Amino acid sequence: MTSAVNASHPAPPGFGGHPFARGLPRALTIALTAAAVLAPLSLILYQSLLSAPFFDARKTLGLDAYRFIFDDADFWKALVNSLLIASGMTLIAVPLGGALAFIMERTDLPGKRLIEPLILVPSFVSPMVLAFGYVVSAGPVGFYSVLATRLLGGIPWGLYSVPAMAVIAGLTHVPNVYIYASSALKNLGSDVEEAARIAGASPLQVAMSVSLPLIMPALLFSSVLVFFLGLELFGLPLVLGDPEGHLVLSTYLYELTNKLGTPSYHLMAAVAICIVAMTVPLVLLQRKLLQNTRKYATIRGKAGRVRELPLGRWKWPAIAVAGLFLLVTVVVPLSGIVLRAFVTNWGLGVSVIDALTLDNFRSVFEEPTHTRAIWNTVLLGTLGGAITVACYTAIGFATHRRNDGWSRIVDFLVLAPRAVPGLLIGLAFLWVFLFFPPLRPLRTTIFSMWLAYSVVWLAYGMRLISSSLMQVSPELEEAARTVGASRGRISREITLPLIRAGLLGSWLLVFMIFEREYSTGVYLLAPGTEVIGAELVSLWQGGAIDVVAALALINIVLVFAGLATAALRFGVRLRD
Amino acid sequence: MPELTVDSLHLRYGDNPILKGVALTLNRGEVVSLLGPSGSGKTTLLRAVAGLEAPHQGTIRIGDQTVFDGATGVDIPAEGRNLGLVFQSYALWPHKTVFDNVAYALRLRKVAPVEIRTRVEAALAQLSLDKLAARFPHQLSGGQQQRVALARALVYKPPVILLDEPLSNLDAKLREEARAWLRELIVTMQLSALCVTHDQGEALAISDRILLLNGGRIEQQGTPQQMYSDPATLFAADFMGSNNRLTGRIAEIRDGAALLEGDGWRLWGTARSGAAAGADGTGMIRLERIGIAAAPGDNRIAAMLLTSMYLGDKWEHLFALGNLRVRAHGGGPLPSGQHWLEIPRGDFWVF
Predict the structure, then answer these.
(1) pLDDT tens digits along B188-238
(2) Which end of chain B has less neighbouring CB within 10 Å, N or C?
């Protein structure tokens, strides 16, 4: 019985090692994350407590900045507008998103598979681009406005009022509600709905008494989310609020420099802190609600095929709701941009055929700043996106299956940037690069942009990574441990290969959000760091509509190239 | 008139046929079980009756009302069929209390609130749930949830109640108690019930009639006794009970008896469907029908004892017959070595 097969082997070498050496990669990851997150955030807080910009020799500590903005009537107007728009868009987006989710997930609406991706389109297009699309389509001399003037003798809508902004923001945020409501409906076993039908409930009664109450946690969560996004709005009010001078908090902050004529970083920081004071509780509330949503998930019965609810006479109203939504939120703005990108000018009495041109694209490609912006945006999405996903994965491994104090700190670090709008994080990184002299040379490189983007999307990206990590059954890792693998080897040789597909999907999603991002780069824009999103903001301010239209179209094409790759090549699920 | 009549029902998912012409009737006060291996279409048949699956051919009638007819396009939706269905997962609405779960169907039928209260309370009392009316489903044990699901399906007195694996989510001990209790309830309330199960013990215990499904067709139907003691096909014989299979060649058929020959053994049994002299045959005998003897005799074969297992109320012995293995029940332990297995001719079916 003493054959080689039966001989006992000692535990593999390398299992022990110095405890410090084993913990080093994790400590390093946590330290770098902490630096990247806390440096900009604490700098905002510090700057808000100064009486002048931090590079000014005459600065003193105090609350002068707050005093100034609280005395400014425009600040209060902006605050009221922000709250009005956020509430209005929540009231529009949540019922509409919930209704669309029910129609798409549960009924026999014809052409559903075609409609569903279209519903998500507004969430993939940069809000700056969408807002621009509305101006060229439905603004005072927009394509559809001109058509309406011809047919009706006037334009029955206005675009630049606060209610109009709330409606447009509400409609373009329907996908945010739709994604959560429809995934809640997917997780909801259809057996509870079938039980209601057996008991004699009609489709509408099923929706009202069973489906909607059961996805209430998801609807509540998305209400808070939409309200929160409403407080963060920047591109939409920048474009649509400008003509009639309606400010919201973020545009108030953005206009402060113009208003005072001097760099007033202390005032901007004070406004930033006011915004964060409102968003932090909302982020914490979202976190709490999301945990509840998970708890509420019902156990599915036998995996029966969902037999769709027959809509019957409700078919045409349902088609009308979905069709009208798509017309107003997708067709109108996007067709406007496409058309505008190919005409020289537009107004009452201009013939489309005569105005057709490719000059807009020519001027984009003749200007090195613009070509650099396109190149940088692509680079940031592809290579930058890959590095970002690698960093997120490292952070994910630092907390994976570890429930200690350090994991809770990382949780907090990941969540913190979520409460700070991208515009402010970009601003804070500008200050970081100015404040720490050794970092100064990096400011005019694309690295500064990449770092800011990665921190802005940290919470979102980490959710992608950790949902991949969670899908790895703990037994697979425990099995590796029992045969003697160390933590590091389990991560490299078991977990990482298993989540490869999830990481690829995360990369594609990160690519798309990096392509559509615009506000983070506004303050970091410099020769060398041009990106399309921030260029659009700056060009719009300068009134270069032709170039904006062409760049906006290029931006849309980039995002949808990523989308098509994701959907066709990799079959990535575009929702969590 | 039967409470439920299903005739030549066909159903497919895409190109994959699930039901290939199933017919059944359910009479008042009768319990019929749909039994079969997974994938045989039994749950699909139940869901088609409920209106939750879409057949493409055949008819379904409840009482004298046609609820589905593939030829005329009649297809009453699930909510119009007035059936009771107990889901395998129970499908209790987690946001409603026990009372509201049971009351919901009555509210949909616009029953007066006072009457709802009395009827729900009566239904809950009948299932000993009266103290749990204010609880939510997640505050109940599995057995209690199962009874709430039953109360919810019974409260509006549907003509037919459908049960989808009603006991499969209970643990083994509870399941046996619930089985007796369910049979008692069905008999005392004179329910007409169609029940899906994959557990033959459950089917034998609670049904008046069993329909054995195989690959979307009905293999055999009959009373539990017929199904167990007189299976028509090899599949039916093998599906019910614990069996020994002896494969060999049929040497001779005489007066309904068949002689099966294997490697060093020959046994007489009753010739069943498909048995022909000179062909390969399969002999089938239930474990409890084999006798163990110390000496040779009529229709006995010699076998070596391999091992014995103690099952509590009996022993199970494993014998070797050449390459074949034969299991038999016995009252006590056996000495190792050679024994004689008695195979009663009437209990040994040769297919």
Answers:
(1) 888 899 999 988 888 888 899 999 999 999 999 999 999 998 888 999 998
(2) N
Distance CA A194, CA A545 (A): 54
Residue with tokens 């429930």: A403
What are A125-148's pLDDT values in tens digits? Answer: 888 899 999 998 888 888 888 888
Per-residue pLDDT, A217 = 85
pLDDT beyond 90 at B78: no
In chain B, which residues have their Cβ closer than 8 Å to the Cβ of A302? 43, 88-89, 164
Would residue A97 count as lying in a domain?
A: no
**B contacts of A189 (beta carbons < 8 Å):** 89, 91
* Total domain count, chain A: 1
CA distances from A434 to A90, A260, A442, A443 (A): 38, 21, 10, 8
* Spatial separation of the C-alpha atoms in residues A341 and A358, rounded to whole Å: 8
Domain with A533 in it: 33-46+358-576
Query: How many angstroms away from the CA of A197 is the closest CA of chain B?
Result: 5
Element housing B267 (H / E):
strand B265-271
Positive or negative torsion for Cα B294, B296, B297, B299: positive
Smallest CA–CA distance, residue B268 to chain A, in Å, is 45
A536 vs A547: CA distance, rounded Å: 9
Spatial separation of the C-alpha atoms in residues A23 and B48, rounded to whole Å: 59
Q: Which pLDDT belongs to residue A143?
A: 85
Specify the residue for token string 């998801």: A218
Whether the CA torsion A161, A163, A164, A166 is positive or negative: it is positive
| pLDDT for the residue numbered B27 | 92
Fold topology of B4-234: Rossmann fold (3.40.50)
Task: Verify whether the Cβ–Cβ distance B51 to A299 is below 8 Å.
Answer: no
Mutation target vs B (from A198, A212, A219; most B CBs, 10 A cutoff): A198
Q: Which strand (E) or helix (H) includes residue A409?
A: helix A405-415
Closest by CA to B194, choosing from B13, B28, B8, B17, is B28
pLDDT greater than 80 at residue B50: yes
Burial (CB < 10 A; 0-12, 13-18, 19+), residue B174, is middle
Considering only CB atoms, which chain B residues are within 8 Å of A213?
A: 95
Put simply, the answer to whether B87 touches A195 (Cβ < 8 Å) is yes
Taking a C-beta distance cutoff of 8 angstroms, is the pair B34, B197 a contact?
Answer: yes
Asked whether residue A156 is assigned to any structural domain, the reply reads: no
Instruction: Name every residue in B having a CB less than 8 A away from some CB of A.
Output: 13, 43, 47, 50-54, 77-85, 87-95, 104-105, 108-109, 152-153, 156, 164
Q: Which stretches of chain A drop beneath a pLDDT of 50?
A: 1-2, 14-16, 297-304, 574-576
CATH of the domain at A543: 1.10.3720.10
Q: Which residues of B touch A299 (CB under 8 A)?
A: 89
Reported ipTM: 0.75
Find the residue in B nearest to A297 (Cα): B94
Helices (H) and strands (E) in chain A, counts: 31, 0
Are residues B79 and A197, on separate chains, in Cβ contact within 8 Å?
Answer: yes
C-alpha–C-alpha distance, residues B101 and A10, integer Å: 60
Distance CA A41, CA B288 (A): 78
Ramachandran class of A486: left when φ > 0, alpha when ψ lies in -120 to 50, beta otherwise: beta
Whether residue B89 and residue A310 make contact (CB cut-off 8 A), yes or no, is: no
The model carries a pTM of 0.78
What kind of fold does domain B242-350 have according to CATH? OB fold (Dihydrolipoamide Acetyltransferase, E2P) (2.40.50)
Mean pLDDT of chain B, nearest integer:
89
| Structure confidence at residue A21 (pLDDT) | 56
